[in-house]
Amino acid sequence: MIQIDHLIKEFDAGIRAVNDISLHVEAGEVFGFLGPNGAGKTTTIKILTTLLRPTSGTVTVAGHDVLEDPLAVRMSFGYVGQQSGVDPALTVLENMLLQGRLYHLPKKKIEERIKTLLQLFDMTGREGQWVGSLSGGLKRRLDIATALIHEPKLLFLDEPTIGLDPKSRADLWAYLRGLNRDEGMTLFLTTHYLDEVDQLANRVGILDGGQIRIVGTPDQLKDSLGQDAIHLTFDEPITEETLAAFRNKDWFKEVIQQGEAIRLYLENGQQLLPKVIQWVDSLNLSAKSVLLARPTFDDVYLKYTGKNWLLADEAAEEDWGGWGGSKNNKWAKKWADKAGSSKSEWVEGPESEGNQDWKKWAGQGAAQWSKGDHDPKAVSDQQEADTKHSPDPEKEHTEDSRTADSSEPAWKKWGDQANSEWSSEESREPVEEKPEKKVAKSEDAPAKAEADSEEPWKKWGGQADSNWSSDKKSGSGQNWSEGGEQPQSEWPKDDLSEKSQDASTKDQKE
Amino acid sequence: MLNFISDTRYLFFKYLKLTWRMPMWTFFGLIQPLLWLVIFGQLFKGLSQLPQFPEGDYVQFLAPGVIVMTVLFGASWSGVSLLRDLRHGVMEKMLVAPIVRSSIVLSRLLHNGFTVVIQVFLLIAVAAVIGAGFPKGQGVFWVWVVVLLLAVGFSAISNALAMFLKQEEPLVVMGNMLTLPLLFFSSALVPAAFMPKWMQIVSRANPVTYGVEAVRACYHGVFQQPFWIGLGFLTVFALISVIAAITTFQRVE
Question: A153: buried, middle or exposed (CB in 10 Å: 19+, 13-18, 0-12)?
Answer without folding.
Answer: middle
